Amino acid sequence: MAEKLSILVGELNEFRVFDYTTDFDKIKYNLKLMEGNFNQNLDIGLNFSEMGIAEVIDLGKYIAIVEINKDKKLAVMWFFDVLFNFKRDVYSKRIKSQFNKIITEKFIDYYNLIQLGLSPFKKSVELSVPMES
């Protein structure tokens, strides 16, 4: 059975097709779950960046896009369920309206791999909202 990752978001929409978080602690937690060394690479990338970083991450059922500005005061992590019944053009239009050409192309490349069942990401992913303590 595949390992299940519980990804933290700010809130869940009814169909869990599109979710996000702007909480930097949740983003760091999610990146640690997904990529292992991504947090170290994040710090290195931010040190060499003038404005911040943006990255697209294949999560099998979901594609995540993370954006963090250099001082880490503005951060957002988006999750798109690409196995939902939306056509590629719907995702493409949505991503193009919000992100640059490189992010859009990488998103569509991952989308195509996932639709063909060729995603290298084999863990099961669920989006969840942590209970406030």
Structure description:
The structure is a single chain. With 133 residues, the chain is an alpha+beta fold. The chain has one domain (10-121). It is built from four helices and six strands; from the N terminus they run ββααβββααβ. It has a four-stranded antiparallel β-sheet. The longest helix is centred in the last third of the chain and has 15 residues, at 101-115. The radius of gyration is 14 Å and the shape is globular. The protein starts with a strand and ends in a 5-residue tail after the last strand. The model has no long low-confidence stretch (mean pLDDT 83).
Offer a few descriptive terms.
133 residues, alpha+beta, two-stranded parallel sheet, 4 helices, 6 strands
- Put simply, the count of helices is 4
The class by helix and strand makeup works out as alpha+beta
Tell me the β content.
25-35%
Tally of DSSP β-strands: 6
